[in-house]
Amino acid sequence: MESEQGNLPGCGSTARSSSAEESVAKKAEETGGGKPRYEAINREQLCWRAVDVERLIGEEHAARAIWGFVGRLDLSGYDEEVRAVEGKAGRPGWEPRLLISLWVYAYSEGVGSARAIEQLCEWEPAYQWLTGATVVNAHTLSDFRVKHEKALKALFVQVLGLLSADGLIVLERVMQDGTKIRAKAAQDSFRRKERVEQALKQAAEQVAGVEAMSEEETSRRISKARSRAQRERQQRLEQALEEFEKLAEEGGGKDKENRRVSTSDPQARIMKQADGGFAPSYNVQINTDAANAVVVAVGVVQAGNDFEQLEPGVDRVEQNLGKTPDQVVTDGGFVSRDNIVGMKERGVDFIGPCGDEAGKGKSSYEGRGVSAQYHSSQFVYDEATDSYRCPQGKILFYEGKEQRHTQVSYRYRAQRSDCQGCPVKSQCCPGNRVTGRSVHRSEEIAEVAEFRQRMQSEQAREIYRQRAQVAETPNLWIKAKFGLRQFSVRGWSKVGMEALWACLTYNIRVWIRLRWRQPAEVATVPA
Ligand code: SF4
Questions:
Q1: pLDDT digits over 91-144, tens only?
Q2: Could you give phi then psi for residue 168, rounded to 5 degrees?
Q3: Whose CA is nearest to atom 5 of ligand 1?
Q4: What is the 363 CA–ligand 1 centroid distance (Å)?
Q5: CA–CA–CA angle 164, 144, 318 (5° rounding)
Q6: CB of 422 closer than 6 A to ligand 1?
Q7: DSSP label at 512?
Q8: How far is residue 315's CA from residue 213's CA, in Å, rounded to a whole number?
Q9: Of the four, 53, 229, 247, 398, which is 20 to 30 A from 409 by CA?
Q10: pTM of the predicted model as reported, rounded to 2 decimal places
Q11: Could you tell me which of 72, 292, 98, 96 has the C-alpha nearest to residue 161?
């Protein structure tokens, strides 16, 4: 080590230098006095090289497995839009098997850009093996990814059929989970309706201006590119105005002033993220079969909550596999009265955590400074008059009802005059300045009571404990390994297709792991 450092200019001491010189002299003596000769590196040269394409990758390479698997699929759904046909003029197109294999392989390696794939085709052995050492251009790849929605959905179902035939899907237990994936839109791209209308007016003028440009002013190619960019912007702004209408329908007359829509991706919505922040996103709902963690359904929704997503998720599983899962397991975000009843009506065993209403009540009393003698339990309910009597003997009359996740909650309230003059008000309702004290009577319907009781059992708790490992496995793969933390396309439909590509890739990787590399019977969740 010392002698190596001593050879570096300016690094060695005099003693080291003389030692190094001695060493060189000794070496020269051994080699007959000449200087050492090294191979010159010439980066200026052009060279031809023979490439054995078949041997670019090993026998066990994942690209071979993907190519083989895709070769088992019926891809005739993609033929409808192929313009180059035998017997007619025109350049032959790329076969769907190749384009599908390229995208699946690229996603599995964390590459989600058509341009990056085009570059990789030029030198990366697996891409070269897939293409036969040719280059597929980015436009072709980009269009193929988002222009065949029907064929892609059919492909996903076909893959499920093959995995099912291989014994990898049993539908005894299916976990459903939602994950937020960021949209291709910046947070500051959200605008009020008036701003969008102004921007649309400007965009329409610009489009008209570009179209009116003479060919002398700019080359035909540049003119086309500019015109296309302006038209796409105009379309996005028109779509943004449509989204305002949709938001108005969803939200009624509420919060009209604060409605904003993204001008980059009008169909994206601001959603709460796992880290607590907010960002323009889509909610990707994934149903995963517990036997081997195969994704059996995927859907993309604009709603940030999961309460309304369980029934559509089970519908998608039915559509894809022609069978309803025996059991669905979710986290607390899906547990609602409607879902409990809905799953029971469909004959699906629903497992999910039940909220601890008692615990919530205690902490909220503590937060409001209510003494234990004045908790709701100290108020006496009279069924005959449908009212409560407080510890001071005052009557609380029925005021209204609220639908909570698993319960209907009936609200009763004391007269303002009774409470404001009450000697124990500071212990009973210290925060009430203008109203009387209220209490709630919750009623659980039979289905919810039965669900709550069932979830107390050790068996249900054990099943629930498996949820995170199974449900979060595809989420982790898609985000961490495939790198899909943000969509690379815009619009609900295209985003849905990108989510489908990612899940298709994930399922093929499960097959590679459990059947291609381990043909014997294996039934384990991928790590
Ligand atoms: S504050 Fe109102 S509800 Fe509470 S004890 Fe007094 S009268 Fe009854």
A1: 778 999 999 999 999 999 999 999 999 999 999 999 999 999 999 999 999 999
A2: -95, -10
A3: 392
A4: 20
A5: 30
A6: yes
A7: I
A8: 52
A9: 247
A10: 0.75
A11: 72
